[in-house]
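CO-FOLDING WORKSHEET

Operator: S.A.
Ligand of interest: pyridoxal-5'-phosphate
Run index: 452
Mode: holo prediction, single chain
Checklist:
[x] sequence pasted
[x] SMILES validated
[ ] output reviewed
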Amino acid sequence: MSSIQLRTDIPGPRSQALMKRRNAAVVQAAYHSTPVFIAKADGAVIEDVDGNRLLDFAGGIGCLNTGHRAPSVVEAIRRQLDQFLHTSFNVLPYEGYVAVCERLNALTPGKFRKKTLLVNTGAEATENAVKIARAYTKRPAIISFEDAFHGRTYMAMAMTSKTHPYKAGFEPFPSEVYRIPYAYCYRCAYSKTYPSCEVHCARHLEDTFKRVVAAETVAAVIVEPILGEGGFVTPPAEFFPILTEICRKHNILVIADEVQTGFSRTGVLFACERLGLEPDLITMAKSLTGGLPMAAVTGRAEIMDTPASGQLGGTFSGNPASCAAALAVLDIIEKENLNARADVLGRRFRERASEWQSQWELVGDVRGIGAMQAMELVRSKSTRQPADEETRQVAQYCYEHGLVLITAGSYGNVIRLLMPLVVTDSQMDEALDVLEGALAHVAEKKAALTAV
Ligand SMILES: Cc1ncc(COP(=O)(O)O)c(C=O)c1O
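OUTPUT RECEIVED:
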């Protein structure tokens, strides 16, 4: 039986009524891409307030690699609720926090002694990574990348690239953040072509130290192994080894922001492992808990322990229910081998998407690793003009036909997949059928307009 079951047009009457209340009471800035109010969810399926069943390929922006309400996660949270709900780790410690740190120290890449700090959100994790890196190196500057996203708090915003809607109007930003181009081969900042470019973008860091910021003032380079909000841009194999080597040479720390790439999305627990990136610090959040807020910074023990007692923390950081959920999530990933599943799902998408790419002018680039897959849509394959409006139409067609997915990219022209890794084969095929229908619909509409 099909997972998608539509009883009303989307959005249905109850969703529409709630949207009226939402518009009156909630700030417009708290944007949502799908005008559908949810009632219940399980695995990869959500049921809305009108009784429609939709497939969730956004996963709460990549937080649900283990699916909605995985039974063992819900059970772990329930057990914790029966014990205690909050003390603040800064007042009274508890075992769950320690156990999560032990697990992350063991699971994150790097065969050195590690320590972990728990916080609440991805932005808080990237902010704390910067605090720790500056405290350790006693240097002020941070290098981040074009098209990067590191969160919405002030330092995180400064490190984030995209102006609208994330930064414009919120200036000024903290200083000492310097930006360099990412390995975005489809839109190379230097108009070069891989591999003849010899990965100029990575080597160019040395030039940055001469012309932009002195190497001896740089505390860290913060980088997403694959750009998340920036459009699932996936660097070539040489990029990170070269970048890491240059950083090591100048005693600059490498912070891998695995907030979106983490927890098996790319067919390994952390994308660094597949991309030759050897970070000193790793930031994590999103799918760590299967839906509760929690984030972490894990890194070399000697670096993590530079800030003195009391210098890091927060009232809710490492909440007991989130810790219980995280331990259950890490068990599921291992027991259900979600790494292998991510690769299977990624291959299923790639088979279909490469057909779409040869069939339609609209599908300019197909990229990703494991289940972190995306398509960049363009008006023409030769000009690569971003098809932002068409991308919005594809997403709209999808939710109107029972598939929730979200877009990405600095030009808003990327369709990205963030489905739970527990999605079944038939649900995956159903979702890809809807996506194919959406591309056909938008491509035909475009062709009809051109003919007129
Ligand atoms: C790579 C990356 N870093 C940081 C963040 C910020 O996380 P949060 O929204 O939990 O603050 C995100 C969120 O999308 C992200 O993708």
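REVIEW:
The chain is about 40% helix and 15% strand.
Residues 425-451 form the longest helix (27 residues).
[x] output reviewed
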